[in-house]
Please model this.
Amino acid sequence: MRWSLAAAAALAAGSLGLVGVFALGASPWAPGALALLGWGVGWLLEARRVVAENERAASETNHAMIELAVSHQEATRELIELHRRQQAWNQELETLVAERTATIEMVVGRLRKLGQMQSTRVRSLSHDLRNPLTIIKYTSDFIRDELSPVPPNVEQVLVDLDEASARMERLLADLARAASIEQTPGSPRFESVDVATLAASVRRRLNALVLGRDIRPTVFQTRESPTEIRVDAILLDRVLDNLLTNAAKYTDRGSILVEFDGTPGQLCVRVSDTGRGMAPDRLEGVFGGSSPDISPNVGTSLGLGLSVVVRTLAQLKGRLEVMSRPGQGTTFWLYLPVDPPPESGSVGEEEPMEQMLRRIIRIREAM
Amino acid sequence: MKEAHGQDARGDSRFVDVFLKYLKAEGAKVVFGIPGGLLHPFFEAIENDPDIQLVVTRHEEGAAFMADGFARVARKLAVCAGTSGPGATNLLTGVSCAFADGVPMLVVTGQAPSGTLGKGAAQETPPEDMDVVGMFRPVTKYSTMITSPGTLTHHLRRALRLALTGRPGPVHLNVPVDLWGHHVDERWFDPSTYRPSTHVFDRNAVRRAAEALMTARRPVLLVGSGVGAAGAEEHLRALAEFLPARVATTPRGKGLFPEDHWLSLGVFGFAGHREARELLLGGEVDVLFTVGASLNETTTFNWHPGLVPSGSLIQLDIDADRIGRNYPVDVPLVGDAQTILIELLYQTHRMIRDASKPASVWNVAPPLDKGHTRYLDPELRTSGAHPLTPQRWRVDLQEALPGDALVFSDIGGHMLFNLHHLCIRRDQRFFINMGFGSMGHGVAAPIGAALACPSRPVIAIVGDGCFTMNGMEVLTAAEYEIPVVWVVENNQMHGITWHGSKMVGSGRPMQSVVFRRAVEIASIARAMGLKAWVVDRPGMMQDVLREALRERMPALIEVRIDERIAPPLGDRAKTIAGFKGQES
Model:
């Protein structure tokens, strides 16, 4: 505002001098001097204003330059700070990413394990399901023998039953194949199991397995047997089912005898059959681990079940002894601790099957 | 000094403390008895011991019966105690029952202080006077008075060894009151170090028995109470099914083989079943295998000669003295029934392995009758008559009887109906003191049984005569809340004597045994604090029994029956008649 007022004043003075020059034109000299004076004064005033204006502008420019420099400095500092913070964030981010990655890897590992376990279970279940299926098949044969001649309506039912059994058998085989071969044992859940109840259950299962066949099933408990043991009932069932099913499968006639006995600190389940039995070299091949063919269709007395039995026994801290004679039969002795130590169930996952087999199964010399 | 098992060998304990330690080591958890001055230190120690329960009974006889019931069910040592004098003699009947049936029991009686014996101390019963030790001697495996502190534990261990090895039975220790407090400085013996296993057998004899059984075409097993004492029911059933062999039980062994099993012939002998009698005496059996059966009068139809099989008689008994006592035996098997049956199973299994095959034809023989016609008077089993028939209410009871029931029968007319008309199934058990035949046992013994096995329902079927003898023991059950259901068959008399008297002598019923005033059993029970019901019509029993069992408290069902219906006395009356004939 001050600058514009000064300029206005200078312009006014200059204008006034020109007006005086033209107004005093009657005296050629005197009016000319006045005009010049006025113009000079005006010019001086204007010059002074311009100088002042320039000084002001320079000062303002200078001030602005200083402010700019300060701002630049501050901005630079801020940039450095931001950069530092960015670096810190990056570092933090990297750590977080690393952690998340580790977690994800862990989850992926677990999922993989679960997947393996699931396939193990599927595989085991598909094998276990063969036991009741065998019973269904034998029951069908038994009904057919008992009702001979079979009335047509019953025959149709039996045919349907046979077809359904065969279908189920195929499905189970597919299921077993589909499941992964790799197995990862789960943690057993130890609970108290009453041995008399267990023996009664085994009796029922064995009776069903040999129903209508020329096989005498015998199950009993001795007074030396512990009254109860701490064991994972589901896993133990799996082992017993395998032993019973195979005894029934490979015994054409005679007797299957199951005894629940005890030695100090252990339950001993003895499963003895009068079945086909095995020659010593074959016995060594299957149970000794020298050529542990444990594929599903091996045709041994345990087949696929052997690998399941061995792994399950490893979890249960149990062991198995076997004695066999061709044409005379096979006897298994299953030993289980009455009260397994607390670390039970921590099975070395990496232990190869062959080594585990040798550790858990012992071959007895035939008498 | 340390004992071989690493336990503290010597100590400064009183004898009574050491005594209780041995009892606990043998698994005794309950002591039945009535405290008294001359046995005070013993009872006081038990009262203060948290691991042993003291059950104070109404009468010492009840204590002995309860101990008997406990041991029969638990198959462990039972303990009863009575103070000196009458406290001791009151135990005698119960101890005799245990002796007759081979029940392991430790009997403890009090005695006057050792320094005063023979000087006329109150209730003293020394050897030279009213010899209480001598009184117990014929009815125990061991009876002695401990006379010096130095032999205290020696006698105790010997008593325990004898009670629990070989044929089990009662043992008696009479202890002067001052000895209980004596300090004992002796080593501790673990039971395994003083009580050896006697489960031995003659392998050759077992082989011969196995061969005889495998080659038999019509083998029959006759099962006695020894199977129950050895816990060999499962092993017996396994052998019977293996061969297969048909199975009859003695009256004492009733139910040890399931009576609804396809091979069961039922009871042979006293109040037995037609099929058992016809087969065993019919000359068809080629191999008869008696297992834990003493072959006495009630088991053999008065030692019927037709019981001898055409082939071999195999007799298994834990007591060598019972082998060949009444019949010539071809294959004697001396030992524990379970051990020998297991060995027999293995022998037969091996023989099959060597290509043998059992020759039995029972699996292709016509099946046995399992319906009402299996029994005498089948029409009375389904009768809708009022008054109620003894047969009908038992059929009703059978319907509601839990699958794991422990059934006790007392002695008398109701016993004969029980033996004949009850069908004991697989997991049920039946107990009766047939050896000594003491009335009143069925009232008290079930209380001990319920303590031995609290998880199983206990039902006692007793007669009105038995109930009036020992019925006050129901108060013991009420006091300790021990869940027994008594089913009291009330015919207002001693029925077996009344009906039996018509079959012997002049044939005139003995009227003296008919109660002159009616006894209302249910009212008595209610007065003792029990829930009680009266059943007097067909079809009532099922609901009443279920309700009584739901209570899980002592309860009583009085069954009023038609007293004119005679129990299946059969040859028992003839035997008595025979005895009378011999006497005259």
